[in-house]
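Might you be able to review the protein record set out just below?
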Amino acid sequence: MRAVRLLLLVFGAAATAYGGWLLLPQLGTALPWLIGGPVLHDVLVVPLVGLVGLVLSRLVTHRLRLAWITAGLMASATLLLIAVPLLWRPPSAPPNPGLPDRNYPLGLAVGLAVLWAAIVIVLVVATTLDRRTDRQ
């Protein structure tokens, strides 16, 4: 087992060194992204997620409902993170007439609406089942 760990360490270190070597010529343009991402995450995203979690834990006392709402918020955040590059920057090439043009803001809105509609349906069904079991 020790030999396998050592082998993985050597291969991991070699892959890291090779990646650093490939990044070296582009370091000037990549450095703001490499530093900005973690700083933005630690300064903006983490406090916001903590605050939303604190508020949700005070408002929603039922653990199953809280779990579904939390899952919806995590999926929404994932969709937003995926959509940011498509919404933020202009297209890098002229539109291709052979491909259908996409309306990314509309697609994001529809995706979020479908996600939250599904979560609302699950919560309504769970609440209905809870009430039925409480009556019996």
Summary: The chain has a mean pLDDT of 87. The CA atoms of residues 65 and 77 lie 18 Å apart. DSSP finds four helices and no strands in the chain.
